[in-house]
Design goal:
The complex is a heterotrimer of chains A (about 130), B (about 350) and C (about 300). Chain A is mostly helical. Chain A is built from 5 helices and 3 strands, in the order αβααββαα. In chain A, α1 crosses α3. In chain C, α4 runs antiparallel to α5 and α5 runs parallel beside α6. Classes of the chains: A mainly alpha (about 130), B mainly alpha (about 350), C alpha/beta (about 300).
Chain lengths: ~130, ~350, ~300
């Protein structure tokens, strides 16, 4: 069982935060197939959010094939996230390091770089949302 | 709803009941004492009863003053402390929003509240006036002036209390604030009492008339600016309510003040002497001259007394109570109208 | 019946001032509706008219299809929590529950006592000595134990501290999750309601500025940032809610159900708070002047 939390200042819709937290828990192995997610009522009682929001997040997860609702029993984890390939991770780190070096060479400060990264990251997230 | 209305008014009812019980206990203890005193002084007296009576009547002044005050004031207090806050408290604390959104209609809520607290008012006021009337029973018999204590005995105070309560509630519904409502209730109550006493009660039943000779009863003269006024008293039957007493000529007409004055000037010159300069009371006339004047006047005039006989006492009690209960119902209807029709 | 609250041309006048004017609304059942607006916007008046505490000057209002104040059956169908959670300060907590049982035929005794126990309310305590949060919880318990189909709450958290505020909303959402209850709750702060409501009504100066499903409102509103230009050049299916210009840049909030194709705009989503504030400003300042010509026509 996991416990959800909310970041009100993130700007990410509540239901998406719930979905992301399940994703993260799966990624680090906190949740495994067969585990039960908290009931909508439990989530609602701890976060003070609209029950429909929880149901919407769970529907999303169900559509993604990660969980399944068993009437009367609860919502259970059924799928596994494909773990990220370590080789791919290494590859992207190398290219990122190279990019950072060239940015510094071009005279960008650490703050500039962080701003660029954040904007680009948010844009890509927004794109992803648009597709979902 | 009845149970809830009782739940809400329970504390005030019980506190008031406790106070009245304390009063009743005091009245019972002293009442028994006075009852014994009555039996030892007046009850067995064979001769010299007048002396025994006045001896008895001179006792218990403190209790009398206290009970007179209570009987006079308590009905108004029901209006001020029960009636006025009944609705204003709901408005001032905003609880009307709680009360009016339960599964009970506003009209039923109001009618039940009025009925429950109104009944409590009637019962407690009844207990109070019963106690007071019981305490005074021997005094009243000996005093033989029942109409003088009419408003403080028997059932009339119940009518006053119920009316004060309903009036207070109505004023509260209109004013919506407790203190102004309390003040307005007091003013309204006093006005209604005085209005009924002065302008309504004397006209409820036509009084009886009785002609008596001027030789019976007391008489006096008052001289102002040369005009002589004849003052008479004590002509109405015992224990009755003397509404008025007037001089009348033998033909049954009421003489004017000037006619009477002229008559006195003509036939009793010894009487019609104005006080010496700088004095308000004239020299006492010679008793024989006074008596001569009295007989002289009695030849030309007699006295017509209008009065309500003692036997009508209970009729008046019921009428008075009925009038105030009717006024209370009127106020309750007004209150109903205000609460159900008019919303802030 | 699927409409929780319906108003047609509803108006209420106090003296010469209209607290609510020409208000038309249709709120579906099964939703948690946020009624948002600045202080004095007419939220309380609207709720009071809906539950029959006041009578309209103009128009009609119905709650769950019933005319307000039409009888005990209509009264039993909704629960109302008035502003500042009024309770009888001299009555004890227990006596409040007794009152609820006396006055409501469908009273849920088990819920009421379980709830007070959970909230650790002392049944022997007088309501007048409860904290603000406890009083609000007691009032909520009274409203819910009525077993209403619809719960209306007037500024329920405005006077509560942050912890009590959270706990109150937790209780409320638990109730919504466990019973199929519709909720209408008002607040002058959208932040109070953002997490809990899925339907929004924005009331400004006595009229409805915008109303609708929160997700669709968020999906149909966008912030556009680009080179300075006249908003009149936008496609006709994009209505401008708010526009601001600096010397070189124009920022717009537009409402449209169609995708925004113009590459000259940087399009970002809006938050619920942005959206509400934009409508409030618009209602306060009048509609956006799209151009001088249009403004002259208006």
């Amino acid at each position: 069982m996991i416990e959800f939390h909310l970041d009100a200042s993130s700007g990410v819709p509540t239901y998406l935060q719930l979905v992301q937290q399940v994703h993260q828990a799966l990624q680090i192995g906190l949740l495994e197939p067969g585990d039960r997610l908290p009931t909508a009522q439990q989530v609602v009682a701890s976060l003070a959010i609209n029950p429909n929001t929880v149901l919407k997040a769970y529907r999303d997860l169900e559509r993604a094939g990660l969980v399944r609702a068993r009437p009367g029993l609860g919502t259970f984890v059924v799928g596994r996230l494909s773990r990220t390939d370590p080789e791919a991770q290494a590859k992207f780190r190398t290219s990122m390091t190279a990019w950072l070096r060239s940015a510094r060479d071009a005279g960008l400060t650490a703050q500039d770089i962080e701003a660029i990264y954040r904007t680009a990251f948010r844009d890509s997230l927004a794109e992803g949302e648009g597709v979902a | 709803m009845i149970r809830f209305a009782w739940l809400q008014s329970r504390t005030q009812t019980l506190v008031t009941a406790a106070l009245l019980t304390a009063l009743a206990v005091t009245a019972t203890i002293t009442g028994v004492h006075f009852s014994n005193l009555y039996h030892s002084l007046v009850g067995h007296c064979q001769t010299g009863c007048d002396l025994a009576t006045s001896d008895f009547l001179s006792h218990g002044h403190f209790m009398q003053r206290m009970l007179d005050l209570v009987a006079q004031v308590v009905p108004a207090l029901f209006g001020i402390f029960w009636g006025a806050p009944l609705l204003t408290r709901e408005f001032e604390t905003g609880t009307y929003r709680l009360a009016w959104t339960q599964s009970v209609t506003r009209s039923r809520w109001l009618v039940t509240k009025l009925a429950v607290v109104g009944t409590a008012t009637a019962v407690l006021a009844g207990a109070l006036t019963l106690t007071i009337t019981w305490w005074y029973r021997q005094f009243d018999v000996l005093d033989s002036n029942q109409y003088a204590v009419f408003e403080r005995r028997d059932i009339a105070p119940i009518g006053y209390a119920v009316f004060a309560f309903a009036l207070g509630t109505l004023v509260g519904a209109l004013v919506r604030r407790t203190l102004p409502a309390m003040a307005a209730t007091l003013v309204g109550f006093v006005f209604a009492r005085v209005a009924v006493q002065l302008w309504v009660r004397p006209h409820l039943i036509a009084p009886l008339h009785k002609a008596t000779s001027l030789l019976v009863g007391g008489m006096g003269f008052e001289i102002s600016d040369g005009t002589v006024h004849v003052i008479t008293k004590g002509a109405a039957p015992a224990n009755s309510w003397e509404v008025s007493s007037n001089l009348a000529t033998s033909s049954g007409l009421t003489p004017t003040t000037a006619q009477v004055s002229a008559y006195v000037h003509q036939y009793c010159p010894a009487i019609a002497v104005p006080p010496a300069a700088g004095q308000s009371v004239g020299k006492a006339p010679d008793p024989s001259a006074f008596q001569a004047c009295q007989s002289q006047l009695a030849r030309a005039f007699h006295l017509v007394v209008s009065y309500q006989p003692a036997s009508r006492y209970w009729t008046f009690q019921w009428l008075e109570t009925g009038i105030f209960v009717a006024l209370a119902l009127l106020a309750a209807v007004g209150c109903y109208w205000v609460v159900t029709r008019r919303t802030a | 019946m699927t409409v929780a609250l319906e108003a047609n041309g509803l108006g209420k006048r106090y003296g010469r001032r209209w607290a609510l004017r020409d208000c038309s609304l249709s709120i579906p059942q099964g939703r948690v509706v946020g009624l948002v607006g600045p202080n004095g916007a007419g939220k309380t008046t609207l709720l009071h008219l809906a539950v029959g505490l006041q009578t309209p000057t103009a128009g009609t209002v119905s709650l769950l299809g019933d005319r307000p104040g039409s009888g005990p059956a209509a009264l039993a169908r909704f629960g109302f929590l008035a502003q500042d959670a009024p309770t009888y300060s001299r009555l004890k907590v227990r006596e409040h529950l007794t009152m609820g049982a006396y006055l409501n035929p469908a009273w849920d005794t088990a819920f009421a006592s379980a709830r007070t126990e959970e909230l650790r309310l002392d049944p022997g305590q007088r309501a007048g000595t409860l904290s603000g949060g406890q009083r609000a919880q007691l009032a909520l318990t009274l409203a819910v134990a009525k077993r209403p189909e619809l719960l209306l709450l007037d500024e329920p958290v405005a006077s509560l501290d942050p912890l009590a505020r959270r706990e109150f909303l937790q209780t409320l959402m638990e109730v919504v999750a466990s019973r199929s209850i519709s909720v209408v709750l008002s607040s002058h702060l959208i932040a109070d309601l953002e997490r809990v409501c899925d339907y929004l009504v924005v009331l400004v100066a006595g009229t409805v500025a915008v109303a609708g499903d929160v997700d669709s409102l968020l999906a149909s509103h966008h912030r556009l940032v680009g080179r300075r230009r006249d908003p009149l050049t936008l496609p006709s299916d994009q209505s401008v809610i708010e526009a601001s210009h600096v010397d070189k840049q124009t920022t717009l909030m537009v409402r449209t159900d169609a995708p925004i194709l113009d590459p000259g705009w940087t399009v970002t989503p809006v938050t619920l708070e942005d959206l509400v504030l934009a409508y409030m400003r618009r209602a306060r300042d009048g509609a956006v002047e799209l151009s001088t010509g249009l403004a002259a026509v208006q």
